[in-house]
Design goal:
It contains 20 helices and 20 strands. With 648 residues, the protein is of the alpha/beta class. The strands form 4 sheets. A 7-stranded mixed sheet has the order 13-12-11-10-9-8-15, with helices on one face. Helix 7 crosses helix 8.
């Protein structure tokens, strides 16, 4: 449970209708199993102690008293367990019968939550036996079960782990979710991060898909972890069949689901810190709950005995910016290319541009920028000859990247210009008295700034705009020459991280027939560009090959993009990012390597903010962006010491 990651579970035991002793045995067996798997929150279905399909048997004294016997046994079974357990049963309070969830922890009842919305339509007739929950939380006694005379009873209760502030649990029962304003909406606005639903939802054709969409949507709109435990095998089939359709969603994302028409336990590790960060970021989340409504909530505190590190089993993608599903990835690629191209289209029209000027190196970023520019020209029905694609070979240019740049420009149909900058750079060295044999930062940056000067002046001469090529990863790390490749007139790649740049270019290569007349040739060029090491090519080649590989200097981009995503999207602490990265990249990088590059990431991110404070305009395409006018405001002089201290 360190890092606010908690293992939760939904369980469907096999039951016998009205056989509370048998049902309690099955519940206890599942509790033991969940405990052995270090589950911290276990949810059972509605009426799990008695069964749901009892109808008028719910009015029998024998059943009601036996249900309390079962509850007492479950309490005893949890006495030495560091786990919150939710079980369902019928409960009589002041001659009214309620459908309730009992919240158990360490052998005690933390509270009892009754069902609010009692269905009485179609196949449901609960109003025949049960009353709706009272509007306010009361305190009740269950003398046949416990000596505690002040058990909270009501819907507006939040069960909070005092030694784990992110763990805030509220409960609803079945129909409470299926209404226009579910109780969980207010629960989440009052602070609950986990919603548990004890349900008995019968199965008919198509209902499972709808049920999943309902839970997913509620989890997303409440920014919560939603645990749905459904009745299953053993319920009466006189008129209905129950499938045990259990599921666990986190902020709209499915973490685990059961195989329908079976019994058993599903588990998932939910990241409550992620929910907390998301709510903190979305400032409108808690709006709408009045002070009076907030005051109605009763907060029941407890303490877990152990806050140990949860053994991770959930899947965490190595590429958070890139969908893993091929169909979704392709759809996303097409969408992003359209966002980039339409952003550029608007800027070209607004400035009455007569051309677009792009510096082409034969690398990934400039390739994507050229592809986007070509797409924008297609949207405008402009002649692609007005795209002026310039290659500017200098000391570090290799034949491989040069040839790829030339082939790409030719196949796109842009105007090709080759402007070698060797002599201009040498003259500049002479002017500033720099020794060309000294391959330092001056040697490298002089080339980048001369190239930008060429692009800007050609744009002025042709009435055009310089299209920026730098990507989000480079902006985050400050891996750009200030007033060199750092500068442009519209930066189409500014919110595309390096890992995503690669997939966008791959998408075009795989679908070249939709973009180019000579699809095979262009596809081969793009694939070779994808296979070329990432490099600024500012140092002379060695034996004709690239001698300066970016990732050997600043670190692997797949790691940096992972770090960037969790730092920017969720505001995670360095320790938590390190923890997640170790788990996700196990077998690919050692813990020492991950730590080394994470420290490098934080150091560069903080020290290079001054470059981000004055970057050009460019379209936002995802949830992480670094524009100083939109998503990210940070002082250039902020200290990194607190973040680095966590990694010592």
């Amino acid at each position: 449970m360190k890092y606010d990651i908690v293992k939760v579970a939904a369980a469907t035991p096999q039951i016998r209708v009205a056989d509370t002793e048998y049902n309690t045995d099955q519940i206890i067996e599942m509790i033991n199993k969940a405990h052995s798997e270090k589950v911290k929150l276990l949810t059972f279905p509605e009426f799990s102690i008695t069964g749901y399909t009892l109808n008028d048997l719910f009015l029998q004294d024998t059943l009601l008293s036996e249900a309390l016997v079962g509850l007492k046994r479950v309490m005893k079974a949890t006495a030495e367990m560091d786990m919150v357990v939710l079980v369902g049963l019928p409960l009589e309070i002041n001659c009214k019968l309620y459908n309730v969830a009992a919240v158990l922890f360490n052998g005690k009842i933390l509270g009892i939550v009754p069902k609010t919305f009692i269905p009485n339509y179609s196949e449901f007739y609960e109003a025949r036996q049960f009353s709706e929950a009272p509007s306010d939380v009361a305190y009740v006694a269950l003398p046949d079960v416990t000596k505690d005379k002040n058990i909270p009873f009501g819907t507006d209760i939040i069960f909070e782990a005092e030694n784990m502030p992110a763990f805030k649990l509220s409960i609803e029962l079945c129909e409470d979710l299926w209404v226009p304003l579910p109780k969980s909406t207010k629960h989440s606005m009052a602070g609950a991060t986990i919603i548990a639903n004890l349900s008995a939802s019968d199965e008919i054709t198509g209902k499972s898909a709808y049920r999943h969409s309902l839970v997913a949507a509620q989890s997303a709109s409440t920014i919560s972890t939603y645990i749905y435990a459904d009745a299953g095998e053993g319920e009466s089939t006189t008129d209905l069949v129950f499938s045990g359709d259990n599921m666990i969603y986190e902020n709209g994302t499915l973490l685990a689901k059961s195989k329908r028409f079976s019994t058993g336990l599903i588990t998932a590790e939910t990241d409550l810190g992620r929910l907390h960060s998301e709510r903190r970021r979305i400032r409108t989340f808690s709006k709408g709950l009045s002070e009076e409504e907030e005051k109605k909530y009763v907060h029941v505190g407890f303490n877990f005995k152990n806050i140990e590190e949860t053994q991770m089993q959930r899947h965490i993608t190595r590429t958070p910016f890139v969908p893993e599903n091929e169909l979704e990835r392709n759809q996303r690629a097409e969408e992003i290319l359209n966002i980039q191209a339409n952003g550029l289209k608007k800027r070209l029209l607004h400035t009455n541009a007569q051309s677009a000027v792009v510096g082409i190196s034969g690398g990934l970023d400039s390739t994507l920028a050229l592809l986007v520019t070509a797409k924008a020209f297609e949207l405008l029905n402009w002649d692609k000859k007005k795209i002026i694609a310039i290659t500017m070979p200098c000391f570090g240019t290799t034949d491989r990247t040069y040839q790829n740049a030339c082939e790409l420009i030719k196949n796109i149909g842009a105007t090709f210009k080759e402007i070698p900058v060797n002599d201009a750079v040498r003259q500049h060295f002479k002017d500033i008295e720099h020794d060309e044999s000294v391959h330092d930062v001056t040697y490298e940056n002089s080339q980048a700034r001369i190239r930008t000067l060429v692009l800007m002046d050609v744009a002025n001469k042709t009435g055009g705009l310089v299209i920026g090529t730098g990507d989000l990863s480079e902006i985050a790390l400050g891996w750009a020459t200030y007033n060199g490749d750092h500068m442009s007139m519209y930066a189409v790649n500014c919110s595309i991280p390096k890992t995503l740049v690669r997939y966008l270019v791959k998408y075009v290569a795989d679908n070249a027939e939709s973009y180019f007349a000579d699809a095979t040739q262009v596809s081969n060029v793009l694939l070779d560009i994808l296979d070329t090491p990432v490099s600024p090519e500012l140092l002379p080649p060695e034996n004709g090959e690239i001698s300066q590989e970016t990732e050997s200097l600043v670190g692997p981009y797949e790691l940096h993009d992972f770090f960037l995503y969790y730092m920017m999207r969720y505001g995670y602490r360095p320790k938590k990012i390190y923890h997640l990265a170790k788990y996700t990249f196990k077998g690919s990088y050692s813990d020492e390597e991950i730590l080394k590059w994470l420290k490098k990431f934080y150091w560069r991110f903080f020290s290079q903010q001054f470059k981000r404070s004055c970057i050009p305009d460019g379209p936002k395409v995802g949830s992480v962006a670094l524009s100083p006018r939109g998503d990210w405001r940070m002082p250039s002089d902020a200290c990194v010491s607190s973040w680095m201290k966590e990694l010592e």
